[in-house]
Amino acid sequence: MGTKRYAQMCAVAAALDLVGERWTLLIIRDLMTGPKRYNQLLEETLVGIGPNLLAARLQMLTEHGVIQRESVSGDGRGVQYRLTASGEALRPVIIGLASWGLSHISSYEQDGLVRSEWGRLALEAMITIGPPPDVDESYEFRIGDEVFHVLCENRTARVVDGSPDDPALVVTADPETFIRIGTEQLGILDAMLSGNLTVSGDSTSLSRCLRLLDLELNSTAQAASEAHADVS
């Protein structure tokens, strides 16, 4: 499969020559949450990509050292794909795109595919928008079948796999609800009243967590009213 190139002596063009083709950055996005097999990518996260196109993208990324093939433990014939150090270096790029894209998810995308692991990426994007934390504590998130937490220490916040030892807050939601809250299409109060979002912890920790994520404790109607007032 031939690939068009920009043929420009420019670092941006050189990067796009490699990762600018359709589906390529989404492959890297999915490998950011851990190694995956070809069939996992084809059938679970990249629904709509053709099998030949996926194979071509994986081969190209492997040849350029962005990803690598490795055997699957306990499966002598199994093969999975993992980001290399070069591929992992794209994490800030993906998170930056996600931060920018949070406000650009259109209504037609609400019925699109949603996966629990994308909730983690959304959370990583959200903590890059809000202010730095001023208290050392952790917030646990149970999004679908994924569990991760935000660790706040030394005025920095990062997302870590698994549960913390002593979370100040535990948030539980389904992936769609969590994404809709993050994109401000659903108010937190509405999600809590519907039972699709539960929060356990003290109110001051909740306030700090919301501040970190640049969110407000309001309803969808309140958010719409405030947005209209800002425009007016």
Automatic annotation (TrEMBL):
Record keyword Transcription regulation present: yes
Keyword terms, alphabetized: DNA-binding, Transcription, Transcription regulation
InterPro entries noted in UniProt: HTH_HxlR (IPR002577), SCP2_sterol-bd_dom (IPR003033), SCP2_sterol-bd_dom_sf (IPR036527), WH-like_DNA-bd_sf (IPR036388), WH_DNA-bd_sf (IPR036390)
HTH hxlR-type domain residues: 10-109
SUPFAM superfamilies: SCP-like, Winged helix' DNA-binding domain
Superkingdom as given in the UniProt entry: Bacteria
Protein name: Winged helix-turn-helix transcriptional regulator
Provenance organism: Nocardia suismassiliense
